[in-house]
Design a protein that fits this description.
314 residues, alpha/beta, Rossmann fold, eight-stranded mixed sheet, globular
Length: 314
Protein backbone atom coordinates (compact mmCIF):
# COMPACT_ATOMS: atom_id res chain seq x y z
CA UNK A 1 0.00 0.00 0.00
CA UNK A 2 1.31 3.45 -0.95
CA UNK A 3 2.13 5.57 2.08
CA UNK A 4 0.32 8.77 3.07
CA UNK A 5 2.88 11.49 3.69
CA UNK A 6 2.85 13.88 6.63
CA UNK A 7 1.43 17.33 5.84
CA UNK A 8 4.69 18.81 7.17
CA UNK A 9 6.56 17.27 4.24
CA UNK A 10 4.11 18.19 1.49
CA UNK A 11 5.60 21.58 0.55
CA UNK A 12 9.15 20.19 0.58
CA UNK A 13 8.16 17.27 -1.64
CA UNK A 14 6.25 19.55 -4.00
CA UNK A 15 9.40 21.62 -4.53
CA UNK A 16 11.56 18.50 -4.96
CA UNK A 17 9.15 16.91 -7.43
CA UNK A 18 8.80 20.10 -9.47
CA UNK A 19 12.58 20.45 -9.72
CA UNK A 20 12.93 16.78 -10.68
CA UNK A 21 10.31 17.13 -13.42
CA UNK A 22 12.07 20.18 -14.83
CA UNK A 23 15.40 18.35 -14.80
CA UNK A 24 13.88 15.40 -16.66
CA UNK A 25 12.31 17.73 -19.23
CA UNK A 26 15.72 19.30 -19.84
CA UNK A 27 17.36 15.90 -20.22
CA UNK A 28 19.51 16.26 -17.12
CA UNK A 29 21.16 12.93 -16.30
CA UNK A 30 22.17 11.49 -12.95
CA UNK A 31 25.85 12.01 -12.19
CA UNK A 32 27.79 11.45 -8.96
CA UNK A 33 28.29 15.20 -8.65
CA UNK A 34 24.58 15.95 -9.02
CA UNK A 35 23.35 13.35 -6.53
CA UNK A 36 26.05 14.25 -4.02
CA UNK A 37 25.20 17.91 -4.29
CA UNK A 38 21.49 17.21 -3.87
CA UNK A 39 22.04 15.17 -0.72
CA UNK A 40 24.34 17.81 0.73
CA UNK A 41 21.57 20.39 0.27
CA UNK A 42 19.64 18.63 3.04
CA UNK A 43 22.20 20.00 5.51
CA UNK A 44 20.09 23.17 5.49
CA UNK A 45 17.41 21.27 7.43
CA UNK A 46 19.75 19.88 10.08
CA UNK A 47 20.40 21.90 13.25
CA UNK A 48 23.76 21.83 14.98
CA UNK A 49 24.19 18.87 17.27
CA UNK A 50 24.94 19.11 20.99
CA UNK A 51 28.35 20.23 22.21
CA UNK A 52 30.48 17.35 23.48
CA UNK A 53 33.54 17.15 25.69
CA UNK A 54 35.56 15.49 22.92
CA UNK A 55 35.32 15.66 19.12
CA UNK A 56 38.36 14.97 16.96
CA UNK A 57 39.15 13.83 13.42
CA UNK A 58 41.45 10.80 13.37
CA UNK A 59 42.74 8.56 10.60
CA UNK A 60 42.97 4.78 10.60
CA UNK A 61 46.19 4.01 8.72
CA UNK A 62 46.21 0.78 6.71
CA UNK A 63 48.88 -0.56 4.37
CA UNK A 64 47.41 1.03 1.24
CA UNK A 65 45.15 3.82 2.49
CA UNK A 66 44.00 5.97 5.36
CA UNK A 67 40.37 5.89 6.45
CA UNK A 68 39.33 9.25 7.85
CA UNK A 69 37.04 9.15 10.88
CA UNK A 70 35.57 11.49 13.46
CA UNK A 71 35.55 10.42 17.11
CA UNK A 72 33.00 11.77 19.61
CA UNK A 73 32.75 11.28 23.37
CA UNK A 74 30.56 12.98 25.96
CA UNK A 75 33.14 12.08 28.62
CA UNK A 76 36.55 10.84 27.40
CA UNK A 77 37.53 9.82 30.94
CA UNK A 78 34.57 7.41 31.35
CA UNK A 79 34.69 3.78 30.12
CA UNK A 80 31.80 4.07 27.67
CA UNK A 81 30.53 1.66 24.99
CA UNK A 82 31.50 2.37 21.38
CA UNK A 83 29.04 2.98 18.55
CA UNK A 84 30.41 2.89 15.00
CA UNK A 85 28.15 5.05 12.84
CA UNK A 86 28.10 4.21 9.11
CA UNK A 87 26.42 7.05 7.20
CA UNK A 88 23.92 6.60 4.39
CA UNK A 89 23.89 7.95 0.84
CA UNK A 90 23.25 5.13 -1.62
CA UNK A 91 26.89 3.95 -1.38
CA UNK A 92 27.72 7.07 -3.42
CA UNK A 93 27.02 10.08 -1.21
CA UNK A 94 27.07 11.22 2.38
CA UNK A 95 29.91 12.24 4.66
CA UNK A 96 31.05 12.67 8.23
CA UNK A 97 30.06 16.34 8.05
CA UNK A 98 26.51 15.72 6.81
CA UNK A 99 25.97 13.19 9.60
CA UNK A 100 27.78 15.16 12.30
CA UNK A 101 24.57 16.08 14.12
CA UNK A 102 23.38 12.46 14.15
CA UNK A 103 26.72 11.31 15.59
CA UNK A 104 26.58 14.02 18.26
CA UNK A 105 22.99 13.19 19.14
CA UNK A 106 23.78 9.53 19.66
CA UNK A 107 26.91 10.24 21.71
CA UNK A 108 24.94 12.59 23.94
CA UNK A 109 21.63 10.73 24.27
CA UNK A 110 23.08 7.19 24.54
CA UNK A 111 26.16 8.26 26.53
CA UNK A 112 28.59 6.44 24.28
CA UNK A 113 31.69 6.99 22.17
CA UNK A 114 30.79 7.40 18.50
CA UNK A 115 33.13 6.80 15.56
CA UNK A 116 31.95 7.89 12.11
CA UNK A 117 34.14 6.72 9.18
CA UNK A 118 34.41 8.35 5.76
CA UNK A 119 34.41 5.05 3.88
CA UNK A 120 35.16 4.93 0.15
CA UNK A 121 32.25 5.64 -2.21
CA UNK A 122 31.15 4.43 -5.64
CA UNK A 123 31.50 4.82 -8.54
CA UNK A 124 35.17 5.66 -7.96
CA UNK A 125 35.38 2.79 -5.48
CA UNK A 126 32.74 0.15 -6.26
CA UNK A 127 31.62 -2.81 -4.16
CA UNK A 128 33.09 -4.02 -1.83
CA UNK A 129 35.53 -1.14 -1.14
CA UNK A 130 33.21 0.69 1.25
CA UNK A 131 32.41 -2.51 3.14
CA UNK A 132 36.12 -3.29 3.42
CA UNK A 133 36.74 0.13 4.98
CA UNK A 134 33.88 -0.27 7.42
CA UNK A 135 35.06 -3.74 8.39
CA UNK A 136 38.56 -2.42 9.01
CA UNK A 137 37.20 0.27 11.32
CA UNK A 138 35.09 -2.27 13.20
CA UNK A 139 38.09 -4.54 13.71
CA UNK A 140 40.62 -1.83 14.54
CA UNK A 141 38.62 1.00 16.10
CA UNK A 142 40.50 0.79 19.41
CA UNK A 143 43.55 2.21 17.67
CA UNK A 144 41.51 5.38 17.07
CA UNK A 145 40.72 5.90 20.75
CA UNK A 146 44.03 6.96 22.26
CA UNK A 147 43.14 9.15 25.24
CA UNK A 148 39.44 8.27 24.95
CA UNK A 149 38.30 5.77 27.55
CA UNK A 150 35.91 3.00 26.47
CA UNK A 151 34.73 -0.46 27.39
CA UNK A 152 34.29 -3.63 25.35
CA UNK A 153 30.68 -3.06 24.26
CA UNK A 154 30.58 -2.51 20.50
CA UNK A 155 27.56 -1.30 18.55
CA UNK A 156 27.04 -0.47 14.88
CA UNK A 157 24.50 1.90 13.36
CA UNK A 158 23.55 2.87 9.83
CA UNK A 159 20.79 4.42 7.77
CA UNK A 160 19.96 3.39 4.20
CA UNK A 161 23.27 2.27 2.61
CA UNK A 162 24.82 2.46 6.08
CA UNK A 163 22.21 -0.08 7.12
CA UNK A 164 23.29 -2.29 4.23
CA UNK A 165 26.83 -2.11 5.55
CA UNK A 166 25.75 -2.94 9.10
CA UNK A 167 23.70 -5.95 8.05
CA UNK A 168 26.46 -7.20 5.75
CA UNK A 169 29.01 -7.03 8.57
CA UNK A 170 26.57 -8.68 10.98
CA UNK A 171 26.03 -11.53 8.54
CA UNK A 172 29.80 -11.87 8.10
CA UNK A 173 30.28 -11.97 11.87
CA UNK A 174 28.59 -15.38 11.91
CA UNK A 175 31.69 -16.89 10.31
CA UNK A 176 34.36 -14.36 11.37
CA UNK A 177 34.99 -14.33 15.11
CA UNK A 178 37.11 -11.17 14.83
CA UNK A 179 33.95 -9.16 14.06
CA UNK A 180 32.41 -8.39 17.45
CA UNK A 181 29.00 -6.68 17.42
CA UNK A 182 26.80 -6.46 20.50
CA UNK A 183 23.90 -4.52 18.94
CA UNK A 184 22.98 -3.12 15.54
CA UNK A 185 20.82 -0.07 14.89
CA UNK A 186 19.18 0.22 11.46
CA UNK A 187 17.32 3.25 10.09
CA UNK A 188 15.36 2.64 6.87
CA UNK A 189 18.04 0.10 5.88
CA UNK A 190 18.78 -0.97 2.31
CA UNK A 191 18.93 -4.76 2.52
CA UNK A 192 17.46 -5.94 -0.80
CA UNK A 193 19.37 -5.22 -4.00
CA UNK A 194 16.83 -7.21 -6.05
CA UNK A 195 14.27 -4.36 -5.84
CA UNK A 196 11.60 -7.02 -5.34
CA UNK A 197 9.56 -5.72 -2.40
CA UNK A 198 6.08 -4.20 -3.02
CA UNK A 199 6.98 -0.80 -1.55
CA UNK A 200 9.65 -0.34 -4.23
CA UNK A 201 6.78 0.21 -6.68
CA UNK A 202 4.13 1.52 -4.29
CA UNK A 203 6.37 4.30 -2.93
CA UNK A 204 8.63 4.49 -5.96
CA UNK A 205 7.72 8.00 -7.13
CA UNK A 206 7.10 11.33 -5.45
CA UNK A 207 8.70 10.65 -2.06
CA UNK A 208 12.24 12.03 -2.58
CA UNK A 209 13.98 8.65 -3.03
CA UNK A 210 12.63 7.17 -6.26
CA UNK A 211 13.00 3.65 -7.62
CA UNK A 212 14.80 4.77 -10.78
CA UNK A 213 17.48 6.47 -8.70
CA UNK A 214 17.82 3.48 -6.37
CA UNK A 215 18.43 1.28 -9.41
CA UNK A 216 21.02 3.76 -10.74
CA UNK A 217 22.78 3.85 -7.37
CA UNK A 218 23.07 0.08 -7.42
CA UNK A 219 24.47 0.09 -10.97
CA UNK A 220 27.21 2.52 -9.87
CA UNK A 221 27.92 0.49 -6.75
CA UNK A 222 28.18 -3.00 -8.26
CA UNK A 223 29.29 -2.09 -11.81
CA UNK A 224 30.62 -5.34 -13.33
CA UNK A 225 30.76 -7.38 -10.11
CA UNK A 226 27.91 -9.63 -11.20
CA UNK A 227 30.07 -10.75 -14.12
CA UNK A 228 32.51 -12.16 -11.56
CA UNK A 229 30.06 -14.61 -9.96
CA UNK A 230 28.36 -12.33 -7.44
CA UNK A 231 24.56 -12.41 -7.60
CA UNK A 232 22.06 -9.77 -6.55
CA UNK A 233 20.62 -12.19 -4.01
CA UNK A 234 24.04 -13.04 -2.55
CA UNK A 235 24.82 -9.36 -2.08
CA UNK A 236 21.48 -8.69 -0.35
CA UNK A 237 21.54 -9.12 3.45
CA UNK A 238 17.79 -9.83 3.36
CA UNK A 239 18.46 -13.13 1.62
CA UNK A 240 21.59 -14.04 3.59
CA UNK A 241 22.11 -16.37 6.51
CA UNK A 242 20.67 -15.43 9.88
CA UNK A 243 21.11 -16.99 13.28
CA UNK A 244 20.00 -16.50 16.86
CA UNK A 245 23.66 -15.61 17.48
CA UNK A 246 23.20 -12.32 15.65
CA UNK A 247 23.20 -9.19 17.81
CA UNK A 248 20.10 -7.55 19.25
CA UNK A 249 18.70 -5.30 16.53
CA UNK A 250 16.47 -2.24 16.23
CA UNK A 251 14.91 -1.35 12.87
CA UNK A 252 13.17 1.95 12.10
CA UNK A 253 11.31 2.32 8.80
CA UNK A 254 9.32 5.06 7.05
CA UNK A 255 5.83 4.48 5.68
CA UNK A 256 6.44 6.49 2.48
CA UNK A 257 9.81 4.94 1.69
CA UNK A 258 10.43 2.59 -1.26
CA UNK A 259 12.68 0.62 1.14
CA UNK A 260 9.90 0.28 3.74
CA UNK A 261 9.01 -3.37 3.15
CA UNK A 262 12.56 -4.75 3.03
CA UNK A 263 13.37 -3.21 6.41
CA UNK A 264 10.31 -4.82 7.95
CA UNK A 265 11.03 -8.14 6.23
CA UNK A 266 14.59 -8.12 7.60
CA UNK A 267 13.32 -7.45 11.13
CA UNK A 268 10.81 -10.29 10.82
CA UNK A 269 13.46 -12.68 9.49
CA UNK A 270 15.78 -11.99 12.42
CA UNK A 271 12.94 -12.29 14.90
CA UNK A 272 11.92 -15.65 13.43
CA UNK A 273 15.52 -16.84 13.89
CA UNK A 274 15.41 -15.97 17.59
CA UNK A 275 17.15 -12.59 17.53
CA UNK A 276 15.86 -9.92 19.93
CA UNK A 277 14.38 -7.27 17.62
CA UNK A 278 12.73 -3.90 18.21
CA UNK A 279 10.78 -2.55 15.22
CA UNK A 280 8.95 0.71 14.63
CA UNK A 281 7.52 2.33 11.51
CA UNK A 282 6.99 6.09 11.18
CA UNK A 283 3.99 6.04 8.85
CA UNK A 284 4.02 9.60 7.48
CA UNK A 285 7.76 9.81 6.95
CA UNK A 286 9.88 9.48 3.81
CA UNK A 287 13.33 8.02 3.23
CA UNK A 288 16.04 10.20 4.80
CA UNK A 289 13.56 11.96 7.09
CA UNK A 290 16.24 12.14 9.77
CA UNK A 291 18.12 14.56 7.50
CA UNK A 292 15.02 16.79 7.47
CA UNK A 293 15.05 17.53 11.18
CA UNK A 294 13.68 21.07 10.96
CA UNK A 295 10.60 19.82 9.08
CA UNK A 296 9.85 16.76 11.23
CA UNK A 297 11.62 17.45 14.51
CA UNK A 298 9.18 15.39 16.60
CA UNK A 299 9.76 12.22 14.59
CA UNK A 300 13.51 12.78 14.51
CA UNK A 301 13.73 13.21 18.26
CA UNK A 302 11.53 10.17 18.83
CA UNK A 303 13.84 8.19 16.53
CA UNK A 304 16.94 9.25 18.45
CA UNK A 305 15.22 8.43 21.72
CA UNK A 306 14.20 4.96 20.54
CA UNK A 307 17.76 4.28 19.37
CA UNK A 308 19.29 5.56 22.61
CA UNK A 309 16.82 3.60 24.76
CA UNK A 310 17.62 0.46 22.81
CA UNK A 311 21.33 0.86 23.50
CA UNK A 312 20.92 1.32 27.23
CA UNK A 313 18.36 -1.50 27.59
CA UNK A 314 19.43 -4.95 28.73
Amino acid sequence: MRGTVSSRLEEFLSQVNTAAAEARAQGVQYTPEVVRGNLDKLAAFIPDGPALAFVEDRGLTLEDRVINTRVYSPDPSAPLPVLIHYHGGGHMCGSIDLYDTASRMMASMANCVVICPDYRLAPEHPYPAGIDDCEAVLKQYRSLLSGVNHNDETYIMGDSAGGAICTTLTMKSLTDSTLHIDKQLLIYPSVDYTLSMPSIEENGQGFLLETARVDWYFQQYFQDKFDDGLTVENASPLFGDVSSNMPDTIVLTAGCDPLRDEGKAYAEKLQAAGVKVSFHQFDGMIHAYMLLHDLVAEECMESYQRLADFLVSE
